Amino acid sequence: MKDHHALPSAYDPQAVEAGWSARWEEAGLFRADARSPKPKYSIALPPPNVTGELHMGTALSGTPQDIWARYRRMTGYEVLWLPGTDHAAIATQNVIEKQLAEEGSSKEELGRDAFNARVDHWYETVGTTIIEQYRELGASLDFSRVRFTMDPAYVRAVRTAFVRYYQKGLIYRGPRIVNWCPRNLSAISDLEVDWQEHTDTLYHIAYDVEGSGRRLEIATVRPETMLADTGIAVHPDDDRYSDLVGRFAVLPLVGRRLPIVADPAVDRHFGTGALKVTPGHDPMDWEIGERHGLSVINALHPDARLNVPELPRYDGLPDLVARERVVADLWAEGRLVATRPYVHQVGHCDRCGAIIQPLVSEQWFLRMRELAQKCAEASSRGEVRWHPERYERTYLDWLGGIRDWCISRQLWLGHRIPVYTCANGHRFAFVEEPAVCVHCGSAELTADPDVLDTWFSSALWPFATLGWPDDTEDLRTFYPTSLNATAREIINLWVTRMIFSGLEFMGAVPFKDVAIHCVVQTADGQRMSKSKGNVVDPRVIIGRYGADALRAWAAAVAMSSQDVRFDESRIEGFRRFANKLWNASRLVLMSLGDEPVPTPAPDASLALMDRWLLSRLQAAVKTATQGIESYSFHLAINGLYDFCWHDFCDWYLEAAKPRLRDADPAARAVCLHVLDSLLRLLHPFLPFLTEELWHRLPGERTFLVRTAWPEPDQQFADAGAEEAADRLIALVEEIRRERRAVGAPARGGHLAVAPGTDPELAELTAQLAGLELVGELAWAPLELAEGRARIAFPNATKPGRPASDGEARRLRQEYERSQTKLSDPEFLAKAPAAVVEKERVKAAELKSVLERLAVG
Ligand SMILES: [Zn+2]
Ligand SMILES: [Zn+2]
Questions:
Q1: Does residue 745 register a pLDDT over 90?
Q2: Pick from 227, 531, 576, 661: most CB atoms within 10 A?
Q3: What is the mean pLDDT of residues 811-839?
Q4: Which ligand is in closest contact with the Cα of 186?
Q5: Could you tell me the strand order of the sheet in which 357-366 lies?
């Protein structure tokens, strides 16, 4: 027989959680079998950056995925949850460059090959750390299939995708205004620009208009860019300037003639309503320039120094130094009309913080029209379901206004663009490293120096990890995957791009469901960020409360419709819940005895409380199942919390104690059956604790993910028993209240019952006799005329005091307020468990007082 009596008296999450991940893996529980006859369920873990560490987002996205993976295994599916990491080009290059700078070196000094070797070495050392951290979280990943976006097979997938797009004519090279990071010397995407409010100076500058004797006033915050001006634009309906359209202004300091054009993009209310047009350094000016055929001048070097050789006075100066000189010169020429402070949004590189310089450069682009169209069509066919649903709009809106995707980056780290040019000028894309030109056989080939945007490779994740472009068994079996769980800030960067890549290369959407989790802010509502140093490290939380408590909390908040503030007391509340389950299991195990315990059957041997608990269990099974199925994980975990804590521990076990002591077979059978079901139901949420307790139960026990998920058993649904037990519970609460109200001791004493007040009361009080819930009682008829209560403790020292009408009204209002709170899902999802618990107790007590008053 098992040593279940040895369950330690105190629950210690560290001791419980230490060994299970290794045992699960040893048993091969999470290794997916593509040949299994079971239906398939698969998730590709959003690859964390290889530089990354576990953060709250990891817990919030990892927990729903693991709940689904475990739940599906228990409902008969073959599950693949595939892990891996992303090379995160910009972030990683920044880390390595910083290391080199500290060593007094640089990537240029090292050279490209040595730099790549250094990067590979670094990936090998840190790559496994982040995956290791998922084990601490209890993630049931298939660790035999770990992938990396730079492993050789993945490199081939990326190159294949590029070549196929290229051959279809969807990839082209062209000039374009890009967001240029002068520190990383690379283009970055619109989505990687971090907008910050700056207060700068707005300069008003006077330009002469040729042949009119008029001066035109222009307002700008970047006067140094005027050196690259090629036009002036005004709004077509702006009467102040309509006579000037078609004429030329003269650019101060330079003397260039600038055509004055009318364009509806001009904001008449900004500055003077006349806009200097700098197509080389502003996205809107670029478009105006395109519409009116203005020339494009690029006046910046990649590091943001001025590139104006024909103006030696400014050439080579850093942009801000050039600004000072330009302003001083304008002042000297009497062209600076006014300056005023100006608050505006300035783009920063979200990787390194440098101010972004819009500049025109040659880049590689992926045409988006056709691909976006495919996404929209798949969406209208309902092939991807979004949770919460409103994020589908975010996705469709972005697709609606999409521009071609600039996929090249001027970094050293990343997937090289597989395009080659031969000595005879032939340009071609090639999957393998080519030896000779495909057109003329020349062996003199130059590889394109750029690398691909990291998201280009991440976009292939759901199928490249399964072996694409090869036709593998995994790919045939597990694609499309079932779920993508991620953060809302990468819906467009990543989720959208996976969808069109999947449609393009696999002819099917990459996943059927997308779950977008909320964002956790600091306790005072700030954004958590590494630079602010206010990030909560989940490993610290795991150290304090255990991974199970962290996961239960993550399940309760992850799908919240609004962002949540971090509240450690809620995690502590789930730690107390785990402790409660531990103690209940201990009590049950100690009461079981050595004989085999049968499964309960709905027969006459069951007491009222047995029938009540078994009926409540069926409701808990339904709630938990529906909660998971509808991505309302909070409903599932809160329902199980209530059932376990209140129904099972507080009421049933308390009531059943005397019967368990007397080795009552029905009570034993009910206890074991309910505990068994509870451990299964809670397993996806608290995998470590449930596994530990499960293996202490009598009988042969396999692992929980190999057991069946409980199904509601209608033969135990018993509305009559629930109603009767509810009345009994109300009576017990009433007695407890009355004891407190009149200062009677918690146990012992006489209870008086008013005759004739309630025909059921006598029957109910008879049932109390067998329960220890209210302490020992002796019964006596209620004879006190002054009491409005239907029950009383006549021997108590303080006499019962009837409530006034005003007090009754106040109590009723208080009860209604409390009920409103408890029926508010936002309150239930967000308030700390301890606060919710307090509110419940308060509501129950108020209810019992009110009932007592009503009867009196
Ligand atoms: Zn940067
Ligand atoms: Zn050639």
A1: no
A2: 227
A3: 83
A4: 1
A5: 186-188, 171-181, 357-366, 405-406
User: What's the gap in Å between 447 CA and the centre of ligand 2?
Assistant: 13
**Which pair of structure tokens corresponds to residue 58?**
């990891």
The one-letter amino acid at 519: V
How is residue 101 written in tokens?
């700078």
Beta bridge partners of 385: 513
Quote the ligand 2 centre to 442 CA distance (angstroms).
Answer: 5
Which residues lie below 8 Å from residue 456, measured CB to CB, with a gap of 6+?
158, 161, 162, 366, 407, 415, 497
User: Do strands 791-792 and 778-781 pair parallel, antiparallel, or not at all (unpaired)?
Assistant: unpaired
Q: What are phi and psi of 227, to 5 degrees?
A: -60, -20
A 10 A CB-CB count for 398 gives: 15
Going from the Cα of 161 to the center of ligand 1, the distance in angstroms, rounded, reads: 27
b/e 14-34 (16+ beta carbons within 10 angstroms → b): eebbeebbeebbeeebbebee
Tokens standing for residue 113: 């090959």
Q: What is the Å distance from ligand 2's center to 435 Cα?
A: 11
For residues 529 and 535, the answer to whether their CB atoms sit within 8 Å is yes
Q: Which ligand is closest in space to the CA of residue 420?
A: 2
Report pLDDT digits (tens) over 200-237.
999 999 999 998 888 999 999 999 999 999 999 999 99
Residue 277 bridge partners (DSSP)? 231
% of the chain with per-residue pLDDT over 70: 91
Give the distance (Å) from ligand 2 centre to CA of residue 444.
8
Residue 492 DSSP one-character state: I
Distance CA 621, CA 712 (A): 6
DSSP-derived secondary structure letter, 318: B
Residue 423 CA: distances (Å) to CA of 456, 501, 580: 29, 34, 76
Block residue for tokens 């409390």:
818
Q: Is the pLDDT of residue 765 over 90?
A: no
Tokens of 683: 């397993």
What single-letter amino acid sits at 83? Answer: P
Task: Report residues near ion ligand 1: CB below 5 Å.
Answer: 181, 183-184, 349, 351-352, 354
Element (H, E) at 363: strand 357-366
Mean pLDDT of 692-696: 96
**Residue pLDDT, tens place only, 502-543:** 999 999 999 999 999 999 999 999 888 877 888 888 999 999
CA of residue 358 to ligand 1 center, whole Å: 13
Confidence tier at 789 by pLDDT (50, 70, 90): low
Q: What global pTM score does this model have?
A: 0.81
* Tokens representing residue 704 in the block: 């929980």
Write phi, then psi, for 773 (nearest 5 degrees).
Answer: -60, -30
